[in-house]
């Protein structure tokens, strides 16, 4: 009974696996019926699978036969092409030998032509004439590559083109030409404008120097322009028609101009002086203002004193008149008293005449000392850079050396004019004081003679 139960359970499981849609059996008859139907369905599925497998096997055999046939066809084609390639190699070798024999000395000629075309192409890429005649280097470069890579011979037209390009370059080198082209401004904008080409040396437009970007035939404005005197000649050259104009020509085609524009200007030199340089310039500006004020004041006072010398009546708008009024205030004073009063009046006028002269003298002394301070500071920075980075790169030391030299120059530039101004102004003030003392001595002598 137990064995029968296990058999029935296994039959139910097999029937359920092949008949998923079957319902739960009610009794043993239905279970037997379902088991029979499941075996029938399984047998039918196996037959279908066997038929499908047989069909696929026949298809694979067909594909295999086709692949074998294709392989045999390609092998035959490969043999045929190899035979043809060998024949072509032999024919090409024979033709090459025949070409070499027929060319003779012309082979050397075309070799020289290829070399000249390549060298000329490189030269034209850096030539300023390419700005007016673009595209020449590309043609020569293509000719050189064709003759070098494919061993093709140059035609008569191509040979004449090389000759024409060389002759054109020689001719244009000695000309001053005007033409319209697109110029890249320093701001990055592109604008079509008139360009003046001075041989193969310089390009100018709108009073500014231009440069040719190598390998592109494009013209760009120099970001940094040379000094003003060169700019004036460039503008004069562009505006002139047939007149002879003095022009700053660069015979190197731009090398000297490139170095010239890298030279720092006046403001850049001043900035290199750093804080000490600014202080020196500030002292120089203050001293210059004080000297200008003293110069104007002493000039006016000197003119008033000169006019007072020509008049007998004293006037209080000048030092001499104010000193002379002392004589009129004390008409009955004795000689010694009058002398003391006049000396007192002169002493009162001296501070007004010598005002700020001492400060100008101090500036003339302090300025070179400040320059020496900047020199020492710059050298300290230079030695620190040498300690950290060594002496391999001079640019690392350039900043300290520039500060050392520039501050020294600024100190001397301020001190020398201040010294000359102080000497001039001090002489003017002493001349006025000398006039006052001379006139006072004359008054005392006159009073003394009257008393006797």
Automatic annotation (TrEMBL):
It is found in: Cell membrane; Membrane. The keyword Signal applies. Residues 331-437 form the MotA/TolQ/ExbB proton channel domain. The chain crosses the membrane at residues 276-301, 359-380, 400-423. One of its GO terms (cellular component) is plasma membrane. GO terms for biological process: protein import. It is a multi-pass membrane protein. Residues 1-22 form the signal peptide. The keyword Transcription does not apply. It comes from the Bacteria. InterPro entries: ExbB/TolQ_transport, MotA/TolQ/ExbB-rel, MotA_ExbB_proton_chnl. Keywords: Cell membrane, Coiled coil, Membrane, Protein transport, Signal, Transmembrane, Transmembrane helix, Transport. Its main location: membrane. Residues 57-91 form a coiled coil. Pfam families: MotA_ExbB (PF01618). Belongs to the exbB/tolQ family. This is Outer membrane transport energization protein ExbB. It comes from Pseudidiomarina planktonica.
């Amino acid at each position: 009974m137990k064995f029968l139960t296990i058999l029935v359970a296994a039959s139910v499981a097999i029937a359920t696996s092949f008949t998923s849609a079957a319902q739960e059996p009610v009794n043993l008859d239905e279970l037997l019926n379902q088991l029979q139907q499941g075996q029938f369905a399984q047998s039918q599925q196996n037959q279908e699978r066997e038929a499908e497998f047989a069909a696929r096997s026949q298809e694979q055999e067909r594909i295999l036969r086709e692949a074998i046939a294709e392989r045999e066809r390609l092998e035959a084609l490969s043999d045929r092409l190899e035979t043809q390639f060998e024949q072509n190699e032999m024919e090409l070798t024979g033709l090459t030998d025949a070409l070499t024999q027929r060319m003779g000395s012309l082979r050397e000629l075309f070799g020289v032509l290829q070399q000249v075309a390549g060298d000329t192409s490189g030269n034209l890429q850096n030539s300023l004439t390419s700005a007016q005649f673009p595209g020449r280097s590309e043609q020569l470069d293509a000719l050189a590559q064709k003759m070098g890579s494919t061993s093709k011979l140059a035609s008569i037209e191509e040979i004449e083109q090389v000759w024409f390009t060389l002759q054109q370059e020689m001719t244009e080198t000695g000309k001053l030409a005007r033409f319209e082209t697109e110029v890249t401004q320093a701001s990055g904008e592109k604008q079509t404008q008139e360009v003046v080409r001075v041989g193969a040396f310089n390009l100018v437009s709108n009073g500014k120097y231009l440069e040719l970007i190598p390998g592109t035939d494009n013209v760009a404005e120099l970001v940094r322009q040379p000094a003003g005197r060169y700019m004036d000649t460039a503008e004069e050259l562009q505006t002139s028609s047939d007149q002879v104009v003095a022009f700053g020509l660069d015979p190197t085609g731009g090398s000297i101009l490139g170095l010239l524009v890298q030279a720092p200007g006046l403001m850049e030199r001043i900035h290199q002086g750093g804080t000490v340089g600014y202080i020196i310039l500030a002292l120089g500006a203050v001293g210059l203002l004080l000297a200008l004020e003293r110069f104007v004041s002493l000039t006016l006072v000197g003119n008033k004193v000169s006019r007072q010398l020509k008049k007998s009546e004293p006037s209080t708008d000048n030092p001499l008149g104010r000193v002379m009024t002392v004589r009129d205030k004390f008409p009955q004073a004795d000689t010694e008293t009058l002398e003391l009063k006049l000396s007192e009046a002169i002493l009162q006028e001296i501070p007004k005449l010598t005002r700020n002269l001492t400060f100008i003298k101090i500036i003339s002394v302090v300025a070179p000392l400040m320059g020496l301070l900047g020199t020492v500071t710059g050298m300290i920075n230079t030695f620190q850079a040498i300690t950290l980075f060594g002496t391999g790169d001079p640019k690392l030391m350039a900043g300290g050396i520039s500060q050392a030299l520039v501050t020294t120059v600024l100190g001397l530039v301020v001190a020398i004019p201040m010294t000359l101004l102080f000497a001039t102004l001090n002489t003017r003030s002493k001349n006025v004081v000398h006039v006052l003392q001379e006139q006072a001595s004359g008054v005392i002598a006159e009073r003394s003679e009257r008393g006797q």
